[in-house]
Amino acid sequence: MPPRPTPAVAEIMAALRLRFRFLNxxxxxxxxxxxxxxxxxxxxxxxxxxxKCAMPRGPGWYVFAVEHGTPRELTETEEKIVSEFRFGxxxxxxxxxxxxx
Length: 101
Ligand SMILES: [Zn+2]
Hints:
Number of domains: 1
Shape: elongated
Order of helices and strands: HEEHEEH
Strand content: 15-25%
Bound molecules: zinc ion
Helix content: 25-40%
Distance between the termini: 61 Å
Structural class: alpha+beta
Radius of gyration: 17 Å
């Protein structure tokens, strides 16, 4: 029977997971088509790569992150990068969802 991980090992593993979270992170493009949600299923390593994949899908696209296999919304910083790509640099935003003012 393998030994149980000690709390110290569990703590180290948690710290490593956090430190190297970018290794388990990718971005995907998503859009709506015929009233259903679609996603590109690519493993884009950057936000801009995912945004470029999303753009030809029409106006209702967005980018989301997948971390350890679980989709999540973009952080405010990530959202700002995508919004600046979409609407141009220096665009002022009304809210944290990236809606231009
Ligand atoms: Zn894609």
